[in-house]
Amino acid sequence: MATLVDGFGRTFPYLRLSLTEACNYRCSYCLPNGYQADGRPGFLTLEEVRRLVRGFAAVGMRKIRLTGGEPSLRKDLASIIAAVSAQPGVQKIALTTNGCLLPRHVRLWREAGLTALNVSLDSLQSARFAAITGHDRFDEVMEGIEIAQTLGFDAVKLNAVLLRGLNDDELPAWMDFLRGRDVSLRFIELMRTGDNQAYFERHHYRAEALEQQLVDAGWTLRPRAADAGPAREYAHPDFRGRIGIIAPYSKDFCAGCNRLRVTARGDLRLCLFGDFGIPLRALLQSDDDHDALVARIATQLGLKAAGHGLHQGNTGITPHLASIGG
Ligand code: SAM
């Protein structure tokens, strides 16, 4: 089986595929005014997704993450999960979701073939959660997480974006939460995007500062698995849960990059903060274009840069993460 290798020796077993740019939340750091449709043609259809994943599986993609926008807004999500899971070579299908539709649909998604789940949960306090996300859905999200934990997923992970002055005092509450729960929490350092520069200046909180608090409380860094993503994961013998830190501004963050992205309109993005997209949609209209699709993916990978330009304030063409699939 072929494997994609770029000019810096990195391999790419992991595709993040956005299914929609639409989102029902108004997260203060992402889409504070809510999703605004722009009248452009729609998002990839089920058939296009199937052909796309078949192409990526042929070049060695083993893990597909479905994201957005909010992917659970797709009425055909269960059918998409089933179609992705049927592609030879695909071993893991994960979903990143804001979680408010979990109580209604998570069993169906699991039955369709979903193997892992990431749920965004920026605060353990329902009033703060509502203030950050613009949506008072804390109870549904918590209920959904509890249900998901009974369904035998390979992993149920929670994502919390670290926000100075908004949720940076919640580490003790998170530790209580993780004491008896077999869950991985990921703290994500706020990333600067095209639209959130003033917000970033106000609320950016360095992941290293939180990491120091963890070390001071007796948490230790776990050895990195060979196929691990960018999170540095900490554990503590008194806690069942684990805490990961995703620090995009840290040295060497890009050296371990193992993922490519495709937007909801079928553009390949080599980097979350890249300057260009590579249109694939024209090659998703017929099964006959499979070889051309594989060739385009393989040749374009040569253009992947060594790292993002966030340190220089260069956020590329990404106005907010909902536009690309964060
Ligand atoms: N709607 C889904 C969700 O809430 O998980 C999937 C898409 S959302 C863009 C994916 C993740 O990106 C969420 O955990 C969200 O909190 C995070 N995110 C969005 N904008 C971000 C930013 N500027 N910096 C860091 N994380 C961000």
UniProtKB/TrEMBL annotation:
Keyword list, A-Z: 4Fe-4S, GTP-binding, Iron, Iron-sulfur, Lyase, Metal-binding, Molybdenum cofactor biosynthesis, Nucleotide-binding, S-adenosyl-L-methionine
Enzyme class, first EC level, given as a word: lyase
All copies of domain Radical SAM core, residue ranges: 7-231
Protein EC: 4.1.99.22
Summary of subunit composition and partner proteins: Monomer and homodimer.
Family assignment from sequence similarity: Belongs to the radical SAM superfamily. MoaA family.
Source organism per UniProt: Thermomonas fusca
Function, in words: Catalyzes the cyclization of GTP to (8S)-3',8-cyclo-7,8-dihydroguanosine 5'-triphosphate.
A biological-process GO annotation: Mo-molybdopterin cofactor biosynthetic process
GO terms, molecular function: 4 iron, 4 sulfur cluster binding; cyclic pyranopterin monophosphate synthase activity; GTP 3',8'-cyclase activity; GTP binding; metal ion binding; S-adenosyl-L-methionine binding
Name of this protein: GTP 3',8-cyclase
Cofactor: [4Fe-4S] cluster
Positions annotated to bind [4Fe-4S] cluster 2: 254, 257, 271
PROSITE patterns listed in its UniProt record: RADICAL_SAM
Catalytic activity line of the entry: GTP + AH2 + S-adenosyl-L-methionine = (8S)-3',8-cyclo-7,8-dihydroguanosine 5'-triphosphate + 5'-deoxyadenosine + L-methionine + A + H(+)
Textual note on the cofactor: Binds 2 [4Fe-4S] clusters. Binds 1 [4Fe-4S] cluster coordinated with 3 cysteines and an exchangeable S-adenosyl-L-methionine and 1 [4Fe-4S] cluster coordinated with 3 cysteines and the GTP-derived substrate.
Sequence positions that bind [4Fe-4S] cluster 1: 23, 27, 30
Pfam families tied to this protein: Mob_synth_C, Radical_SAM
Residues that coordinate or bind GTP: 16, 65, 96, 157, 259-261
HAMAP family: MoaA_B
Domain of life: Bacteria
